[in-house]
């Protein structure tokens, strides 16, 4: 079975990380040949090629400019003729709406992979015109919203493939020195895009409540990729200054060594304002043996258990501060929660297991 994964590829976040992991583990199921087509060149295209995966570039499109949509669909048709897929998987409503009609015209089964809760935007209205042969959802939370888009599609849940961290020694003291952090400090890390709903404000306000505790340092990893993210970053830096914690917060920007940062940290804290569709960052943290603090929303409720972390009420800096205070002050608790993380991460997201599950679903769905 030859499977063509189709996506935009102009940004970098959880979906991109998942596709890069699929590329690196595509040999796990020899009977499933994996290829990729992206609308845009970018970091994802480079990572896919570095993994040795074939990548076709289709060209971007804007829904408001119909001629760009038709051009993109023609490019998709050419990619289908070249790659000859048995199945095409369209990741996200935008990708499905733009490119799935070309697969239908070529009589190639179109599979829709829903990565985010359905919200009713323009991309979803376009996607609705091309019902898929099969729908895959990244979490139970997301699957519950699928009927709003495709009422007759039941949807199968396949968690994102997330690989265990490389088994290499990380010099925690050296990483911390590199980032202006003392060796004995309790490092609280958040690794996410600079989106307001990722909870940076709540995180910083919680730390502001702990500003008299000298034991912690915060690392915020994640670059601003769009104008509103730049504004958000600037607003959060100003907030840290007003809270009197600016000197204890490290703004790390876009990083390609997040596993190294996690290995040198002590706690992952991401108290979302809006629900994560899944939450790959929580899984990565658990692989690294970090206890997790997250908001009791969306995918986090499917990932974080009492054995691996603490879920707090959303938009509650006081509750977040109490969870942080508890973990900052209790090294034994940090160690216990962290030790349970790797097994939980593998249970949810082991790449070979998820690739086999995907192959089984596609085989049954294409029959």
Structure description:
With 367 residues, this protein is of the alpha/beta class. It folds into 2 domains: 2-161 and 350-366, Rossmann fold; 172-348, Rossmann fold. It has helices spanning 14-24, 43-50, 66-83, 93-105, 122-127, 140-143, 172-178, 200-209, 227-242, 258-263, 280-287, 300-303, 317-329, 331-339, 341-349, 351-366, and strands at residues 2-7, 33-38, 55-57, 87-91, 110-114, 134-137, 156-157, 186-191, 216-221, 249-253, 267-270, 292-295, 309-312. Helix 12 (300-303) links the parallel strand 12 and strand 13 (309-312). The longest helix has 18 residues, at 66-83. The protein is globular and about 65 Å long. The mean pLDDT is 95.
Question: What's the short version?
Answer:
By secondary structure, this protein is α/β, with parallel strands linked by helices.
Descriptors:
single chain; 6-stranded parallel sheet; Rossmann fold; alpha/beta; 367 residues; 2 domains; 7-stranded parallel sheet; 16% strand; 13 strands; globular
**According to CATH, what is the class of the largest domain?**
Alpha Beta
Largest sheet: 7 strands, parallel
Q: What is the name of the CATH topology of the largest domain?
A: Rossmann fold
Which homologous superfamily in CATH is the superfamily of the largest domain? Glycogen Phosphorylase B
Tell the overall outline: globular
- Overall mean pLDDT: 95
User: What is the chain-wise order of helices and strands?
Assistant: EHEHEHEHEHEHEHEHEHEHEHEHEHHHH
Tell me the β content.
Answer: 15-25%
List the helices and strands and how they pair.
Layout: E1 2-7, H1 14-24, E2 33-38, H2 43-50, E3 55-57, H3 66-83, E4 87-91, H4 93-105, E5 110-114, H5 122-127, E6 134-137, H6 140-143, E7 156-157, H7 172-178, E8 186-191, H8 200-209, E9 216-221, H9 227-242, E10 249-253, H10 258-263, E11 267-270, H11 280-287, E12 292-295, H12 300-303, E13 309-312, H13 317-329, H14 331-339, H15 341-349, H16 351-366
Parallel strand pairs: 1-2, 1-4, 2-3, 4-5, 5-6, 6-7, 8-9, 8-11, 9-10, 11-12, 12-13
């Amino acid at each position: 079975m030859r499977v063509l994964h189709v996506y935009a590829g102009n940004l970098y976040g959880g979906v991109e990380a998942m596709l890069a992991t699929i590329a690196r583990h595509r040999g796990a199921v020899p009977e499933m040949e994996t290829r990729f087509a992206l609308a845009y060149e970018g970091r994802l295209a480079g990572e896919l090629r570095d993994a040795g995966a074939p990548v076709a570039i289709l060209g971007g499109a804007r829904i408001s400019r119909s001629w760009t949509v038709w051009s993109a669909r023609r490019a998709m048709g050419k990619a289908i003729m070249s790659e000859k897929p048995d199945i095409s998987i369209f990741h996200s409503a935008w990708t499905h709406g733009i490119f799935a009609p070309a697969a239908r015209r070529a009589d190639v089964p179109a599979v829709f992979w829903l990565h985010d809760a359905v919200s009713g935007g323009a991309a979803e209205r376009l996607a609705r015109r091309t019902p898929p042969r099969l729908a895959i959802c990244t979490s139970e939370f997301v699957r519950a919203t699928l009927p709003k888009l495709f009422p007759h599609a039941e949807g199968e849940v396949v968690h994102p493939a997330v690989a265990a961290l490389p088994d290499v020694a990380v010099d925690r003291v050296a990483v911390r020195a590199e980032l202006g952090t003392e060796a004995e400090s309790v490092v609280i890390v958040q690794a996410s895009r600079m989106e307001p709903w990722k909870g940076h404000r709540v995180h910083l306000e919680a730390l502001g409540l702990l500003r008299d505790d000298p034991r912690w340092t915060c690392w915020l990893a994640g670059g601003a990729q769009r104008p509103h993210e730049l504004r958000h970053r600037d607003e959060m830096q100003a907030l840290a200054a007003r809270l009197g914690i600016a000197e204890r917060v490290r703004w790390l920007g876009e990083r390609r060594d997040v596993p190294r940062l996690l290995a040198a940290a002590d706690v992952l804290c991401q108290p979302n304002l809006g629900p994560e569709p899944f939450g790959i960052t929580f899984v990565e943290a658990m692989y690294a043996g970090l206890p997790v603090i997250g908001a009791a929303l969306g995918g986090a409720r499917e990932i974080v258990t009492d054995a691996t972390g603490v879920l707090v009420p959303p938009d509650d800096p006081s509750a977040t501060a109490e969870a942080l205070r508890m973990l900052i002050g209790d090294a034994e608790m940090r160690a216990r929660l962290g030790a349970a993380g790797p097994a939980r991460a593998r249970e949810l997201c082991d790449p070979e297991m998820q690739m086999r599950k995907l192959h089984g679903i596609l085989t049954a769905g294409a029959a």
